[in-house]
From TrEMBL:
Residues 61-173 form the 3-dehydroquinate synthase N-terminal domain. This is 3-dehydroquinate synthase. Catalyzes the conversion of 3-deoxy-D-arabino-heptulosonate 7-phosphate (DAHP) to dehydroquinate (DHQ). The lineage of its organism: Bacteria, Pseudomonadati, Bacteroidota, Flavobacteriia, Flavobacteriales. One of its GO terms (biological process) is aromatic amino acid family biosynthetic process. Keywords: Cobalt, Lyase, Metal-binding, NAD, Nucleotide-binding, Zinc. Residues 175-315 form the 3-dehydroquinate synthase C-terminal domain. It comes from Flagellimonas pacifica. It comes from the Bacteria. Its cofactor is Zn(2+); NAD(+); Co(2+). InterPro entries: Dehydroquinate_synthase, DHQ_synth_AroB, DHQ_synth_fam, DHQS/DOIS_N, DHQS_C.
Length: 351
């Protein structure tokens, strides 16, 4: 399966990924090779990855899984470990895990000694189709997602779909939400093909999603314009995700679960403000509710979620900027939304 060329690196899949990894290690005279894992990838993915690498690992660093550990404290621990194990500017950090781990690991590598090489090996569907492209690295600030970080590209990204077999169905569905988003913002035919598929986690669909995101990112690497469309569903979705993370009495939502709600809500806003047809809106809502159980929000929840919108990274000059759909396959960025429509959107979601 042909590799995908991004800005300064390539995304390699399956057999090509293994070959590219071995070639890269052989070509570069790294002083140290470190691998970052969490408790899940250490058990389920590290043994087979060591075989693929075929090279001595100097040290495996383990962090705890989960969004609640994607913070500067974890970074400090890893910077210290890199220093304690004689990491220098010619060291390599391989991040073996989901989006939380690759975001955090990329940020740690980008800032240790002003930057060392890193390779991302995403092991969840979400990280394969989303975090693998674009070079966004970073951590959360409290419950506020991705407030601290830099855009910095890995040496390469390696996709091994076999790792998806180690995941619970809920985790796979979380990644599926981002794949559906790619169709909604850029490719109506892909949306139609994907939304009724019983085998969405296969290599062909994964490659298609990566290619869609990559095409957007290559045209706008620093998110000055077009790249903003990748945030469809994320303005309200991130606020919902942060709110649930911050309130222990509420069940924590996975990223894709929160974004699925966000896409229904922002689909409603699209219908009201940008002419998305009622038929398309219903199609979007019914598709996401087919895969993701509805979540009940009371008025106090909604008020608190809307309060979090002021921290969204896309905000400018005090305005909350949304990405909305003109139709399925066509998105538009930097849309300002009247506040009264937020309550209407939640009411539509609850219907």
């Amino acid at each position: 399966m042909e590799s995908i060329k991004s800005q300064s690196y390539e995304v390699h899949l399956e057999d090509l990924a293994e070959a590219a990894l071995k070639q890269h290690i052989a070509k570069n005279n790294y002083s140290k090779v470190f691998v970052l894992v969490d408790e899940n990838t250490k058990k389920c993915c590290l043994p087979s990855f060591k075989e693929k690498l075929g090279y001595s690992i100097d040290k495996v660093f383990e962090i705890k899984s989960g969004e609640e550990h994607k913070n500067i404290n974890t970074c400090s621990q890893l910077w210290q470990l890199l220093s304690d194990h004689d990491g220098d500017r010619k060291s390599l950090l391989i991040n073996l895990g989901g989006g939380v781990l690759t975001d955090l690991g990329g940020f740690v590598a980008s800032t240790f000694k002003r930057g060392i090489d890193f390779i991302n090996v995403p092991t969840t569907l979400l990280s394969m189709v989303d975090a693998s492209i674009g070079g966004k690295t970073g951590v959360d600030l409290g419950a506020l997602k991705n407030q601290i970080g830099v855009i910095n590209q890995p040496q390469m990204v390696l996709i091994f779909p076999e790792y998806l077999k180690t995941l619970e169905d809920r985790q796979v569905k979380s990644g599926f939400a981002e794949m559906l988003k790619h169709g909604l913002i850029q490719d109506a035919d892909y949306w139609k093909s994907l939304k009724d598929s019983n085998d969405y986690a296969n290599a062909d669909y994964i490659k298609k999603s990566i290619a869609i995101k990559n095409d957007v990112v290559v045209q706008d690497p620093t998110e000055q314009g077009l790249r903003k469309i990748l945030n469809f569903g994320h303005t309200l979705g991130h606020a919902i995700e942060s709110y649930c993370l911050e309130h222990e009495e509420r069940p924590t939502l996975l990223h894709g679960e929160a974004i699925a709600i966000g896409m229904i809500l922002e689909g409603y806003l699209s219908h009201q403000l940008k002419g998305l047809s009622k038929l398309s809106l219903e199609e979007i809502k019914n598709t996401f509710l087919k895969y993701f159980a509805p979540v009940d929000f009371n008025p106090e929840d909604i008020d608190a979620i809307l309060e979090l919108l002021k921290y969204d990274k896309k905000n400018s000059h005090g305005n909350v900027n949304f990405v909305l759909l003109q139709n399925i396959g066509k998105a538009i960025a930097d849309v300002k939304v009247p506040e009264n429509l937020f309550q209407e959107a939640f009411a539509y979601y609850k219907e």
